[in-house]
Amino acid sequence: MSCEDCFKTVPHIGTPSGRTETIAGVETYISEPKGATGGQKKILLYFSDIFSPFYINSQLIQDWFASQGFTVLGLDYFFGDRFETLMTQPGFVRETWRDKIVQLAHEHTPKWVKAVKQRYGTTDAKYFAVGYCFGAPFVFALANDPTFNLAAGAVAHPSSLLDPATKQLKVEVFENCVEIDHAFPAAARRQAEDILAKNKAHYYFQIFSGVSHGFGTRGDPADDAQRFAKEECARGFLHWFNSFVA
């Protein structure tokens, strides 16, 4: 499920510090901690909203997680067919585009995840996942994969969670939500909480008022409430992940 807020954005200002590599045939944004030494690596898989991991807002968020000690990888499951450039083109049909990229994402994400795990291994690495809006269901799919052994997952303003995979969820999960959200309304949020409680999962919900769906990546930094929600969302995720590092 999506809503109009899924497709709205305020571009942020900054200079990305990551690089681009191709992993399993998918262009990937990679941002690594500076001056990293030996020891266990913290690998964060970044599942972006429909603006892609190469959108400036997403790049800056990934770089921030990298500055906090995570090796961050964001796959472009849109294969360059990015909404930010298409949305102003005459004749662009949003629904047709979304149907296509949903299929692409579901087809290529599992192969990309497998390649990432082969690249970094399991001996000296611990894996985390974060998903925003469109990317949230991929976090839960990964959490339900018993072969992957995800340490913890986190999602912000999810757009579709009440699927069969979610109903089996038991892994540690943090959900950052907004009080009024047409993509993930209060009734669905409470149902998701009931499912997690029934499964005796380790979970945490944080709910913001006064902001819209998309606040975690696309809120307006000039607005105090939106800036606070965005920054607190990222800080909360960081503390959540770090609590599972040991």
Give a quick set of tags describing it.
single chain; 246 residues; alpha/beta; 8-stranded mixed sheet; 35% helix; globular
Give the % helix: 25-40%
What share of residues are in beta strands? 15-25%
Largest sheet: spatial strand order: 1-2-4-3-5-6-7-8
Oligomer: single chain
Largest sheet: 8 strands, mixed
Along the chain, the helix and strand elements come as EEEHEHHEHEEHEHH
Compute the separation of the termini in Å.
36 Å
> Using DSSP, what is the number of strands?
8
Q: What is the approximate shape?
A: globular
Give start-end ranges of low-pLDDT stretches: none
Q: Radius of gyration from the CA trace? A: 17 Å
Contiguous helical run count: 7
Mean pLDDT value: 88
Question: How would you describe what is shown here?
Answer:
The chain is an alpha/beta fold and 246 residues long. Helices cover 35% and strands 20% of the residues. It has seven helices and eight strands; from the N terminus they run βββαβααβαββαβαα. Strand 1 (19-23) and strand 2 (26-31) form a beta hairpin. The protein starts with 18 loop residues before the first strand and ends with a helix. The model has no long low-confidence stretch (mean pLDDT 88).
Secondary structure blueprint with pairings:
Layout: E1 19-23, E2 26-31, E3 41-47, H1 56-67, E4 70-75, H2 83-86, H3 94-120, E5 125-132, H4 136-143, E6 152-156, E7 173-178, H5 186-198, E8 203-208, H6 215-218, H7 224-242
